Amino acid sequence: MLDFLAQALTPFNLTLALVGVVLGTVIGALPGLSATMAVAVLVPFTFAMDPASGLIALGAIYTGAIYGGAFAAILVNTPGTPSAIATTFDGYPMARRGDGSLAVTLATLSSVTGGLVGAVFLLLLAPPLAKVALAFGPPEYFWLAVFGLTLISALSTGNMLKGLIGACFGLLLSMVGVAVVGGDIRFTLESQTLLGGINVIAALIGLYCIPVLIDLVATPDPHLKVAAGAGGFRLAEAARLAWRSKVNLLRSSVIGTLVGILPGAGGSIAALVSYSEARRSSKRPERFGQGEPDGIMATESANNATVGGGFIPTLVLGIPGTPPDAVILGALLVQGIRTGPTLFVQQGSIVYTFIFGLLIATVLMLPTGLVLGRYAYQSIVSIPKAVLVPTVAFMTVIGSYAIQNSPSDVVIMWALGVMGWGLNRFGFSPSPIVLGLILGQIAEQGFVQAYLIGNATGNVAGMYFGRPISLAILALALLTLFYPWLSDRWRRRRRGTPDD
Amino acid sequence: MTDGIEGGGPKYRDYPSIGLAVLFALLGVWVLFETTAMTAFGSIFPRAIAIAMIVLSMALVVQQLRRPRRPGPGRPSSGPESTPRRVALAAVMAAWALSMPVVGFFVTSLLAFLVLLAVANYDGWTPRRMLLYGASGVVVVAGFYLLFVKALLVPVPSGWLF
Fold it and tell me: Could you give the 3-state DSSP secondary structure of residue A178?
């Protein structure tokens, strides 16, 4: 093992890891440029390298891009990548009240922790954990999506009914276009533009960023406050908070790794599930959504843990866990590496050198992230609002266009943004809509496929309620949904007893 | 968080919420109507969600109607906010999105940037500020244009101009 570590520590590999993390972070920070795009754009440069070095570069770009998504989420309320959606919930309120530098440092520490946990799982437990991916069938995916939807109870501050209606609206938006099962053309209003459906990233940019822009121009107030004496990295303060929330960090990192193993689930679901669990187990659940550091720690550790987790099925089974893994799998094939259960034995030197390289890249994310984060924060704070508004507007336009090189996505982004602003004015917050939009396809595909299999085997109910993993996820979903009510009842009952 | 929050004070009847709930219920009805032309597998999920949305929207209407009317002149104002600037921003962005494929990406982006500078500026215009902000617009638009077109090879629409 030490030989592989030494190979990963060569100056060339260290430089690749550093450059990869910096490039990935910058690309991930730009709304509309996803981790998949960052990896895809830079993958041809790795073909001339030896396989381990090429993989280290790609892993570093990937992990940097997932982390970089937090910058835009915290500073301008726009998730740079879909996996940073939940980071906006508490990151932006923290930045608004003057704790932006603390939020960025917390995101950095959490991303490093999550990335390390995911990489350690990849290093030590890849072959047995790969079996988890095979144990997940359509009903498990359906219940996992339902579990993600239970977060609505956390996001519907003020009126649960409005949150649920928003989620239904998001679910319906996710059905626009060609049906995932059956191929029906649905709700396209006879428009060819809508045949491909509503792009999630364009919707995210619109629903989160356009309302912020509309409100920014409405008053002469500064866009972000800077708390007195709150300059610098605030590393010691962030480290104290992270240490205090070590259980949250570890739990979220493990959730991120496990969700990352599931093909197609991805960082956004991992972050949402972790956020939901962090809120459920917090002593201050009411502060979530209003700038609670635990919320940022949960989401950022989980989404970076999916990097290591996603490599587990990619390397062991040849099934990519996340979209960037699919691009990296293609790069592996070009390099002549055959993925599969024997990979760790037959080509151990490449795989273990890569995993150590990923660990090193994750550690390098700490200094580079702190420096880049501080620069990004100071830039956003010092730019006059009159210049910031058109700059962010330009990024929303070019970001939503670049996803599919389609002007229609820009129009959809704008329309959803204006609609989101209007709905938000009357208590229909954008987060449940986004949640429904993201989880809709996974939920529908799992639901219909499970129904098909159940119907063919004559056991529809058994498909949904007779599988142990499904039941465990369902139980967790119910616990998350009813925990606030149950804990309130328990508290009242305890207060009512004479012993207390 | 910018999410809409009803607040912790006394809750009054909110007519815009009732209106929106009715609109969501009508959307649900339209979805149900559309599903009649779909296959069983394509319609089962949207039908379930549409029914849920109609029920929830009606529940919201009932919830709001059970609340007392707000005393005084309706919804409280949210303070000195400029509606014309909000409308201007939304209109400029709509024009930007629609004219981009026709006129060209760079030109529309530069023009929209300059107009939005005017919409977002509250500090008055001095020659120095005009020069500085205008130059920053050119730098930002040209910088991102070159990054996307030359480095990332994103084919942006060229339209009549470029």
Answer: strand
